[in-house]
Specification:
The protein is mostly helical. It has helices at about 1-5, 20-35, 40-50, 55-65, 65-75, 80-95, 95-105, 115-120, 125-130, 135-165, 170-175, 180-185, 195-210, 220-225, 225-255. The protein is built from 15 helices and no strands.
């Protein structure tokens, strides 16, 4: 954790070990624009699931975490209980709290600014911030990504909700898959070891496999059990291997 809290503060003119400000802004804008446009799909999906224009826009303005928003309206559209739908969205959003623990060290923002910055702690801003080598570039990447994405996401949400009637049957367009597709595209490169890939694969199997038998919104909650199950199995396997090694060593000593 020490190297995270002691990031060098390199200015835009000094790029030795740092990164030009223009390059950070370009990368942040690319992520913000690409993902922000998918707010249109959320607006259409939300309006198609029965939420009003005000409710749809309030979700983007206040919740502002795409995967949770899609999970909520998707569960409601499937006839799920509102409390179950909200619980599924909540558990998906919990990951942002863990992002915040790490970003608070990297950004080192004044206390007065932190509550406002917390609104922008999402997958995309975290990914851009973690890719930066200096505190200055972390702050620039986080701010530009957050601002671009927040403005575009809310604007396209409004346009999507207003245009839902003109589109007609939103299910026929498959726009409800846009949010999860973006989320998976961001998540896939982060799965760097076998344990992470196993957790992701098991979560997919649990979520999809339980769709026909559980109420809408509940499979997402059950899929969250993938992580503790895989970690438990890994611990058991590691423990068994350690015991086997100790037993083999003991037998070797007895033989001598």
């Amino acid at each position: 954790m020490r190297e995270q809290t002691a990031l060098p503060d390199v200015s835009g003119a000094d790029t030795d070990g740092g990164k030009p400000d223009a390059a950070v802004v370009r990368d942040a804008l690319g992520v913000g624009v690409a993902v922000g446009l998918s707010g249109f799909a959320f607006g259409v999906t939300s309006a198609g699931s029965g939420l009003t224009l005000a409710q749809t826009c309030a979700l983007s303005l206040l919740v502002f975490t795409g995967a949770s928003q899609f999970a909520l309206v998707g569960a409601l559209a499937a006839g799920g209980n509102p409390l179950t739908a909200a619980a599924g969205a909540f558990f998906l959003g919990v990951r942002n709290a863990f992002y915040g623990l790490r970003l608070s060290q990297l950004l080192a923002l004044p206390r007065a600014v932190r509550p406002f910055a917390a609104q922008w702690v999402i997958d995309e801003t975290t990914a851009v911030a973690l890719a930066q080598p200096t505190r200055r570039s972390v702050r620039i990447g986080f701010t530009v990504t957050g601002l671009t994405l927040y403005v575009l996401w809310n604007l396209t949400t409004l346009l999507g909700a207003l245009g839902a009637e003109a589109i007609g049957d939103t299910d026929a367009w498959g726009l409800d898959a846009a949010g999860p597709a973006v989320f998976l595209a961001l998540l896939a490169p982060m799965l760097k070891d076998t344990t992470e890939r196993t957790v992701a694969a098991l979560a997919v199997l649990l979520g999809l496999g339980l769709l026909p038998v559980l109420p809408a919104g509940v499979p997402v909650l059950v899929a969250a059990l993938a992580a503790p199950l895989v970690l438990w199995a890994r611990g058991r396997r590691a423990g068994g291997t350690g015991e086997g090694a100790d037993r083999g060593a003991a037998e070797g000593e007895d033989g001598r």
